[in-house]
Amino acid sequence: MKIELHENKVYFNNGTEKKEIHPFWLRERVDGEEFVDKGTQQRLFDPTSLSNDIIINKASIHEEFLEVNFNDGISSKLNLNKIALEFSKEDTVIKSIEKTKWDSGLSNIKNFEYQDNFYESKEMHDLLVSFYRFGFVVIKNIPTTKNYIVEFANSIGSVRRTNFGEYFDVKSKPDPNDLAYTSLALAPHTDNPYRNPVPCIQLLHCIESKVSGGYSTLVDGYTVTEDLKKSYPDYYKILTEVKVRFKFIDKEVILESLCPLIELDEHKNFKQVRFSPRLDFVPILDKEELDLYYQARKKLSEMYNSDKYRIEFKLAPKDLMMMDNHRLLHGRTVYDANEGERFLQGCYIDYDSTEGKLRHLKRKFNL
Ligand SMILES: [Fe+2]
């Protein structure tokens, strides 16, 4: 990408095409103390109050700066590298971390270790990169006192509180209102598909584990749905198109969301999976369409539940797992509550927490 000048017009040349940069676009980006707040980089002026008839009286390039005089009397030096960065349409921090597809063969994944000054450390940066690559990460040695999970969440960003509270205790109890609070196995699922937006990231912190079963299970929804696309394109298509009603009802609230099981982004790439087959209600469609939908959902469920894609591991006390609830499915194996206590605490955070922290640490360590 090169910035070029011709007769007081500014062009960008990406090697294949050369286009003029709108003078107003440059005028909005004037730099320097009188125009931009140093710390926040927020504008000290409102560009909507400027005349739309901005033109450039004079422009020149000196080393890495574009010097521009505009016809409203304002002059500024703009950093060429900063301008070039804006021509990348994608997010340059998060989207540049490539997702690694994985299945049951996943091995040698790095666990992280809680330490002093953890949240401001290079280790935290590496942890977040690993999280975006694999969709989950395990951190050892996290304090287990005083619902520390909430402090952990708030040290990365902010807890996403739901109507279940700031955090929840996962242990078997009498008369449970959800299968999570029994000792039964839990098939792979995503949490809270009935919320809008769905909580992005789940944290699960192991406080006590005195049982021989109760392994945590994870499945990469990204890998599975990409495989489905390759092997069963018709199934994939209908599952990305049909919006299903997910519902949660209790005395105080009725939560509902109408969304596909596989949601794609504006480029038709993977965005999010939702899977919780006890809560989904497909709308009435033509019989042939429903035939295809039910076959597709069954196949997807078989894949999510197959040994081929699932990893299993045991969380030990002080282990905290952070997983992407838009990408991964999670579950657990059965355990015997008579063997002793199994106690986990969970809470949610959203992507603004992890993204904000990662961008900050990148800036801090100049990465
Ligand atoms: Fe869950």
The helix/strand class is alpha+beta
Helix content: 10-25%
Please give the largest β-sheet. 6 strands, mixed
Please give the radius of gyration in angstroms: 25 Å
Low-pLDDT runs of 5+ residues are none
- Please report which band the strand proportion falls in: under 5%, 5-15%, 15-25%, 25-35%, 35-45% or over 45%: 25-35%
Distinct bound molecules:
fe (ii) ion
Biggest sheet strand line-up? 7-8-19-11-21-9
| Structure annotation, total helices | 8
Instruction: Please report the distance between the alpha carbons of the first and last residues.
Output: 21 Å
The best one-word shape is globular
Would you give an account of this structure?
The strands form 6 sheets. The protein has a 6-stranded mixed beta sheet. It has a 4-stranded antiparallel beta sheet with strand order 10-20-12-18. It has a 3-stranded antiparallel beta sheet with strand order 1-2-3, with no helix packed on it. The protein has 8 helices and 21 strands. The chain has helices spanning 23-28, 80-86, 122-134, 148-156, 221-231, 233-241, 287-305, 351-364, and strands at 2-6, 9-13, 18-20, 56-62, 65-70, 75-79, 112-113, 136-140, 168-170, 186-189, 201-209, 216-220, 244-249, 254-259, 262-264, 270-273, 280-281, 310-313, 320-324, 328-332, 342-349. Strand 2 and strand 3 (18-20) form a beta hairpin. Residues 180, 189, 191, 330 line the site of fe (ii) ion (FE2).
